[in-house]
Write a structure and sequence with these properties.
126 residues, mainly beta, seven-stranded mixed sheet, four-stranded antiparallel sheet, 11 strands, globular
């Protein structure tokens, strides 16, 4: 059974940092791009960042560029999201996802991903 588990969320003040982790099991995700999305209350899920299957290419939403950093673990079945200089508008449930296509591109739309985690809550207080 394929499973993605996010961790590392929590409550932080404006300007603080958090590091999210996403561990995958049940399938070897080597060769697949991985991404982070988020959903705030009353809003649609939106793209945050993605990393290529090799780890050599990354993509960021404009809203987080320069503040967030995505990376893959050594075993490639883990993806991280380092979030610095957090803002209240970053408050959301954060989801990690695995791309549908092996050795494909680094995607920023949710329809390109077919495995999703349960999400982890990030709350940034002002």
């Amino acid at each position: 059974q394929v499973q993605l588990v996010e961790s590392g969320g929590g409550l932080v003040q404006t300007g603080g940092s958090l590091r999210l982790s996403c561990s995958a099991s049940g399938l070897t995700f080597s060769g697949y791009a991985m991404g982070w999305f988020r959903q705030a209350p009353g809003k649609e899920r939106e793209f945050v960042s993605a990393i290529s299957w090799s780890g050599g290419s990354t993509v960021y939403a404009d809203s987080v560029k320069g503040r967030f950093t995505i990376s893959r673990g050594g075993a490639k079945n883990t993806v991280y999201l380092q979030m610095d200089n957090l803002k209240p508008e970053d408050t959301a449930v954060y989801y990690c996802a695995v791309a549908r296509t092996r050795f494909g591109g680094t995607y920023s739309t949710s329809d390109k991903y077919n495995y999703w985690g349960q999400g982890t809550q990030v709350t940034v207080s002002s």
